[in-house]
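Quick question: what would this complex look like in 3D?
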Amino acid sequence: MKKLLFILMLASISLFASQANYEAKIYNAIFNALFPAKRTIYVWSDSKQKSDILRQISATQSVDSKEDADILLLSKTKNIDTKTMKFVTNYQLLKHYKKSAVGGFYWKKGRPNIIFLKKNLDKYHISLPQSMQEYVEDEL
Amino acid sequence: MKHLAKIYALFFISIGIAIGYLYISLTHTEDLLRTNINHLFISQAKEFASNIQHHLHQKIPQNLYTTIKNNPQLKTELERDISLLTTENFKYIYLLYKDKNNNYRYLLDGSEGEEKGELDEKLNVDKKVWNEVYETQMPKVFLQHKLENLWITYLEPVIYQNKTQAIIAIDFATTLPKEIQHATQPVEHIFIYIFIAIFIMLGILLYQTLLNFKSKRDSITDPLTQTYNRNYLRDLLQKIDISKYQIAMLDIDHFKVVNDTYGHKVGDFILSDVAAIIKKMIRSDDILIRFGGEEFLLFIHRESSKEMLATQIAQRIRRTIEQKTFTYDNNTLKITISMGITCSPQHFKTISDAIKHADEFLYIAKREGRNQVVSDTNIQTLSKKQLDTLSIDEIKDAIEENRLLCHYQAIFCTQTQKVLKYEALVRVINKDGSLIYPNQFLPSIVHTTLYNQMTKTVLEIVFAKIKKHKVAISVNLNFSDIINEAVFKLIIEELEKNKDIAPWLSIELLEYEVLEARDSFVNNIKIIQSYGVKISIDDFGAGFANYNVFQILKIDTIKIDGSLIKNIDTSETSYKIVKSIALLTHELGIETVAEFVHSLEVYKVVKELGITKVQGFYFAKPQENLLNGDKTP
């Protein structure tokens, strides 16, 4: 029984590791698309879990202060009013920041979902590469 | 050792097959379980989808999207109904529609909380599969390879007026197949380790085999010339069918001079170069062996024993080497080779005898001036012209065609003038009817199996004669015949067949040979004597007169060599030698025969010396028929 539990634990760790790894790759692709010219992208996040994921990406660096960040990765905070670029991690928050966030990435139905909001991308003069175009929405 | 290797190989293969079978069984069981789980899901998912379809068509007869969009109450009701179907395994049940941009958006969702999709919310799906369902209007099941939390998805189109309005999606999120996979993974890993271990062991086995092969090859290869060596020859002699080969012995002429003049490095260079030339000129079936020093042995393959290729190939090799200029460190050398060939090695008692025979002809080639090929057919042709001798094949034909016969020369008693016995002398009848004498065929076959056959035939002829005429007859044999296992065996066979008349037979042993294998010789003679056969020593006084023979054997008669008798009337030395022999034999109680008695004068001297038996042309020549009665000179 102990053996079986150990196997199941290992399996769940590897499952999580696999999904986190997958998520890190997606964030890497998103940030590279948003900041194609930057070698290091400074990211502020309100979620420890997301900060941990971002640590796996060599092109990003977590910062403690929102002012030092190139982009804010928001998972729960709703009252941020700053010109710094925002990117959210759930659909409800995206709806909340639909006028300022450039987009969001979240899991739904076990599937990764990426949405970029065209109007907000334009505000930051961001032109996404062709591979990201299918995720661009005019509005929510 | 070979059997052991086979057993090991069989053992490993059996283990490999057993493990392979177990591994396939395990993966097959795993697949079967997965298929059953899938089947369970699919059959239930179909039923759910069918119910949803039915429900939808009941509630919304047309304009699916518009009706839901404009009727939030109905949407909530429908979603509540759908949510009743969701379970831990049937995790997500929802409907998506396709917008004009080919994106899929929520229409209805049975999920709750964060997972719930809002109307028109986009969901990233595998468009290729979803589009297929949209267009073909056929349900589809697909495995979610890329998604960690889902196992399988069932899609079914919702069709209104033959147009796909939406797709019902049911996600099956069981961990069972993965759990099965995780549970069986350690076993699979064990199998993989076993396969790796077997692979490594096979690798080691292969490496060992290669090493063995290499060391075996090294042990049979001459490192300088890269030809086979004598180790290989030893093995070859055990297994070769010699009738399929002709044997050539070749030697580099004046090789010692090359070594002495230019040094051993140049000598080695010449050896390896000559070997390389020969290897290039022979066929894959031919076998080249460095016999020792500058001597090579070449087995030239032939399809049948009639094929005579050796001389042709040997001449070609000789010419090529003669024409080549060998250059080493600014030294230019011309080299020649000599070759001796045994054309029909199958006629020899052993292959070693055939090799010796080739070596003898190599010696002749050297003696005749080197840079030439001498084969036994050359010599036989030459000898035939000069001496009218027969070739091995001609003798073989003569034996097979019963063209052997015996002439009998009578031996007389000096006292009574009566015939005491006869000496059988073998002859071959030539195809033209002429007679061929032993000196014209015996030397060619003395080392071959034909000699054995001839001995057997002569014994058969002689016994037939004894049987018919009841007379004593002697036959000539060599000392070596008595110790030769095959010849001795056939003598005993003939004696066994003619036990009753065996005492009429005398064996005259030719005395010129040095006696080897004394014990075996004495034993065999005693066995022959046990049949009542008389033993004589022939040509006594001509060769190595070995008096020791009188100590070890009971000799009945000695025959004094003709060279001493024929001039006994004129040569004092011959007279004294014969006199001493006669005295000796008299003292030992051994009968004495004087051969070559060709005149009355010789006969008188012989008689005067007390020799009791005479043989010679003065009395009778050898002839096919026996003499009738007494003969008075």
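Answer marked as accepted. The first helix of chain A runs from residue 2 to 34.
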